Amino acid sequence: MRFEFSTARRIIFGPGVAEQIPDLVAGLGSRAFLMLGGTPKRFAGIVDRLVSRGITCETFRVAGEPTTDMAREAVASARGMTAQIVVAIGGGSVIDTGKAVAAMLTNEGELADYLEVVGKGQPLRKEAAPCIAVPTTAGTGAEVTANAVLSVPDQRVKVSMRSPLMIPRRAVVDPVLTHSMPPELTASTGLDALTQLIEAFVSNKANPLTDGVCREGLHRAGRSLRRAFENGDDAQAREDMALASLFSGLALANAKLGAVHGFAGPLGGMTDAPHGVICGKLLPYVMDVNVRALRDRAPESPTLARFDEVGRILTGTSTAGASDAVEWIADLCKVLRLPGLRKYGLSEDDFPTLVAKSRKASSMKGNPVELHEDELTGILRQAIN
Ligand code: NAD
């Protein structure tokens, strides 16, 4: 057995820990580039407290999932103020942009030099500037992952900048920040975390350390996603989902993902669908096809027992198996009122391009079994409605 496990230098978790942000910033430098999401006013108090401690701050608003142009603009501003620290408070979009900026503060050249697929894909040479990542969704786990996802609108694709050198220095996970998420956002982001936990657990790069965090995360997401959707003020459910999201990030950064994420990059580039909706909508169909393909082509695969275990964890029933896991997730998606992907502009004409692009995606390589073209097309056919 061989594996590596990389993560943030410090992970600070708990209700109210966001109060520590000014102290954490002050411990890392005196020039901070603050990246905030759709409602920056919500964090005006933190900016005031930083300024009153003599920290020079510049704020940058990340509205929506980031494009390479937006990231370039943020990099230019951060370099312009010679920022020493990046503080990213928001959903995965804000945190990913923050991670890209922190990496470009210490590494020379242009963003395109380091982008996979559409750029030169050069490795980062220097550790990123300190980044404090504070998630407000639960979520992506981006506070502990080694990549930043950026979309390239003219090529209709989402790509990553990726290096263990860009894992945020501090991950500050305060579940209270997620209470304001409306049900629809709770649903889509929670399904992203659930997908990451399942795909990492059955991936061909899973290791005993990621297995442990996946089991714990699945248990918590299984008992709490629906509760958080139905009552956003359920503090216990919000705490479970914040942990599930964090654990999904720990797992995905150290094990690979699978076909859901193989599709998510191209689908996110070709449609307007939020990342979490794409994940949740594809998840039951991908699991079903994977289980069938394994039974057919690799019946001795130990991954089949893992799918059974997912069924036992999610349903809480000791006799449950893989098909119960698929059914449980399909039912959950109905309860969470997840729309079909046609709503976001996906059409049957896109299927051949999507299948071709997904087969080249790095996440597809973590899928426990290689899926055939007709199986991949079948998944899209089910997820469109
Ligand atoms: P998001 O960051 O795009 O936010 C979605 C919306 O929710 C935004 O309008 C935002 O303003 C709002 N919002 C955020 N927190 C809120 C809160 N507490 N209350 C109310 N509204 C709030 O959504 P996301 O799902 O967190 O992130 C998606 C992005 O993350 C995608 O680009 C995806 O590709 C990327 N991602 C990255 C990784 C990684 O490891 N780097 C993993 C998964 C996803």
Q: Keywords for this structure?
A:
single chain, 385 residues, alpha/beta, six-stranded parallel beta sheet, two-stranded antiparallel ribbon, 13 helices, 8 strands, globular, binds nicotinamide-adenine-dinucleotide
Task: Describe the fold and architecture.
By secondary structure, the chain is an alpha/beta fold. The chain is built from 13 helices and 8 strands. It has a 6-stranded parallel sheet with strand order 1-8-5-4-2-3, with helices on both faces. Strand 2, helix 2 and strand 3 (56-61) form a beta-alpha-beta unit. Helix 9 crosses helix 13 (373-383). The longest helix has 23 residues, at 208-230. The protein is globular, with a radius of gyration of 20 Å. It starts with 9 loop residues before the first strand and ends with a helix. The site of nicotinamide-adenine-dinucleotide (NAD) has 29 residues, from helix 4, strand 6, helix 5 and helix 9.
SSE arrangement:
Layout: E1 10-13, H1 21-26, E2 31-36, H2 44-52, E3 56-61, H3 68-80, E4 85-90, H4 92-106, E5 131-135, E6 147-152, E7 157-162, E8 170-173, H5 183-202, H6 208-230, H7 235-254, H8 259-270, H9 275-297, H10 303-315, H11 322-335, H12 351-360, H13 373-383
Parallel strand pairs: 1-8, 2-3, 2-4, 4-5, 5-8
Antiparallel strand pairs: 6-7
Helix pairs in contact: 3-4, 5-6, 5-7, 5-9, 6-7, 6-10, 8-9, 8-12, 9-11, 9-13, 10-11, 12-13
Bound molecules: nicotinamide-adenine-dinucleotide.
